[in-house]
Amino acid sequence: MRFEDRQLVHLASEQTRAAFFDSAALERIALASYLIDAGTLDPPWSAAFDELTFTTTFPSRQRARIESRWDASSMRAEGMLDLESQDRSLSGVSAVWRGAVIARGRVGGGRVDAIAGGFPSLAEVDAAIDSGGAPPPASGPARDAARRDEVALRLANAIGRPNTVSGADVATLVADEGAADIASFLVTGQAARKLGALSVRFASDAPAAPVPVRLELTAAILIFDPGATDILLADRLRATQRAQDLLSGEASSRNATAGLSRRNEIAAIWIVPAGWFNDADWPGATAAARLAEASAWLRAYGIALVTRA
To answer: What top-level branch of life does the organism fall under (predicted)?
Structure first.
């Protein structure tokens, strides 16, 4: 049996579907679908197939407006016309998977124990300078330097870390923002944003036990044997992007997992022979290293690699 047919049969059968993706493959699918920090999710990994559709076309609906005017009566008529066709071909897509990848983790963050911060204003800064023991500089570079030092002092003290912010740090920030000096930055910045420091402390409670985390997804599954076809890799990428574009409207119907952000609205799963990465033209010293390198490159496009015998 051809590689493509063998994989499709195993994916279609309920007896073999549950074990179709191994743990490493499911993790790659999760990474192509979501922005996941290292250590956030752990094994065991499993797959939930809420719906698995073996189809190559999806209905397409287009709406047109018809408007007419008759000069004699100056009357106008309008109408709406809906056209539905089967022209949205998912070329090269073997199946569409709607469901989830399930792992274990602690998604959602910890409990905030304390918040501290401060947002100095120009009036507060000038008042502090003018109330000092030594005669304050009235204007010019000396006044600007005194203001920067006072802002630095207030920012560091606001978060309980004295001497961690310097006047030079403030000068760099002001320059990066394109302001002429700290005074103009504090004044013009009031409208849209404020300069300040904020410290958030999380409780030191023992972390909760890991719980199952369900990563909702919609994925286009493409099965192909590169050694048995003359289709270029660039062509496969274009076909994948087209499938993702056609399915993109479905992402809103499957809310992203709470506490995580989607890397791509629609994932694409390439099921390829394990021997594909024996080719030394792939970057990497070993087949495993080549698979890892290719996975890191393709996940930016929402593509997860799955190798099968």
So the answer is: Bacteria
